[in-house]
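Q: Fold this one first, please.
A: Sequence and structure below.
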Amino acid sequence: MEITFELGYALDTFYFLICGALVMWMAAGFTMLEAGLVRAKNTTEILTKNVALYSIACIMYMVCGYSIMYGGGDFTLFLSGITGDGATGVAEDPATYAPAADFFFQVVFVATAMSIVSGAVAERMKLWAFLAFTVVLTGFIYPMEGAWTWGGEAVFGMYTLGDLGFSDFAGSGIVHMAGAAAALAGVILLGARKGKYTADGKAHAIPGANLPLATLGTFILWMGWFGFNGGSVLATATVESANSVAVVFMNTNAAAAGGLVAALILARILFKKADLTMALNGALAGLVAITAEPSTPTPLQATLFGALGGILVVFSIIALDKVKIDDPVGAISVHGVVGLLGLLLVPVTNPDAATFGGQLIGAATIFVWVFVTSFIVWAIIKAVIGIRVTEEEEFEGVDMSECGLEAYPDFTTSRS
């Protein structure tokens, strides 16, 4: 059955927008997950950070990020906009969907990258220091590495990642590992939470306040990931593209299930208990692992890839604690370590699009750029306004010192 261009354009645009809305809903998932895994006294600040970072990401990507990533570095979109008829000043190849839909889909991705940072620096970072960093990451750092990857630009004019055999379907490296690299730089400069590590270096568990909320957040992220990966097909109006979308949805779901089950079993073996937090991170690790290439694996391969991610994330969380990298929600392990795994799995099922050498070069480019620039920005913010709250504020909870509100006033001691 043939389909007219107009109808195909409308269907693909509608699909793009719905998938973008699903990815936007992931912001709620990150918020609930993080709020559930921190202590009650720090919940309001987590909620504030997440709604604010999403808003800042939308503004900065409109002002300059989108044009840097896809328009050669100018501010065309901000200056000329995108009109109702789809016209835009940004040079584009003929597309089967509205340019404004493309912008919306891309902007929710940059917000996702920044959400990863939020959980890793939770419970001890100043709110406004975090938001200042959000401006730079979403407006410049992420768009630059995006230009070298999805944007097809040469890296500092030296080499083009696509020509070297680099492929990242929906962002295991470009989004997830990038967010983790920025988080790692911040955590190193920030230091661990008070009481997290004992004098002899052992990690002390700091339980989250609301595991039902964390579980809800994981389910929301799981659901949103269908838009994240499925939308990256970029079309659904033809039989071929519709079949591809269905495969991506199927494999995304399979990988999450494989990751959760593998992490749950491994946690039972290691800790003699069914650790819910490890299971939740296992599901997210499975999702990250499949994101770099969800369209070519078989369902069995997708499940196994997810399981590898689930196993890796458990060991990574344990290893980071041993070197005193304090990440309250396991974001660096889930999105960074497993993000690298996702990139390296692409050539297994799609050798025509990627090589192991190209994936390693691409991963190194993304990590070095984001980590180094983020470290510099964090260091500048630390020198100018500071990035960490005082010991007293950390002890009492950053909700009152940063936001003046308690998330659970009926269950915590109110302060006059």
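Q: Good. Now the second chain.
A: Here it is, same layout.
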Amino acid sequence: MPIKRHKRRLANGEERVYLYAVSKDGSQRRSLSSVPASSVSLPLYRKAEKNRIVAALQANSSLLVVGEAGIGKSILGEAVAEELQELGFMVAIAHPLTAKQSYLDIAQQLGVETETIEGKSLTSTQLSTGIAEWLKDNTAFVICDDAHRYTVQFRTWLAQLHEQGQSLLLLATFPPARDIFLRLPRIELKPLPDKPIRQIMRSTAQNLGIDMMPSQLSKLQQRCGGNPMLAQRVVREEYLGLDATNPDHTQWIDGTPFLIAGLMVLVITRFIGLGLNSTSLYLIGGILTVAVGVIRLLVYAMPRKSGKLGR
């Protein structure tokens, strides 16, 4: 079934976009999900990734797209679905529901029977088997958003579909290294460059009816880490006059090379002290080396902040 969108304004003034799977004749319509209108209205800044994914799916390959929350996986998945539908293919978009609800959702989008002749609803096993058999005889693509939230039962079924040659696209926020996630080639979405992040922030500010100076955008951009959702959020926080918070993106600089370089300098200092027969230089180098090693162990033993937003 083609995917349609409908925008509504809620009582609190927020605009949301509702996604529906609609049959070709318009007789059947099923609600899929709703997302903030601001996220759907974002331009697609990942056309290269979209084209690569569409080409891979058409080549009967499956892919796993990973990245931090808010990096743009869902928008990319919707763009891939629209592209495939424009090419004449059937697409089913799955969401993290219960296993049976997910099967029912996919079956209705693909037009697979969901009831018996007597009008009784099919069981989870019957639905999953019916979808798998239908996909063997028909060309269609299954896109799974928020795949890291799926149940083990549903992920096992996806692995079975993959084994029978079905093309899948999984979108996940740092999924566990097991089952279906280990089998698929992966694409990791990198942070967006400065220019599109500035465009997102400027567009968000315009929607809120505020003007922001380039210096303000530059200051707020440091808190985004190339994350489009965070780019929108920091502008809203500025609009509401909220105090700045610590950045909660997961793009950080790895300090391991600097630590190793520092340790090597200390070791070289010890050798210089040994070569010059300088006991004090030799002892200082040894003490500092041990001190840096102890600090490193203490730092790694400290509890770490979760890389997921909201935790």
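Q: Anything worth noting on the second one?
A: Residues 8-16, 32-41, 306-311 have pLDDT under 50 and may be disordered.
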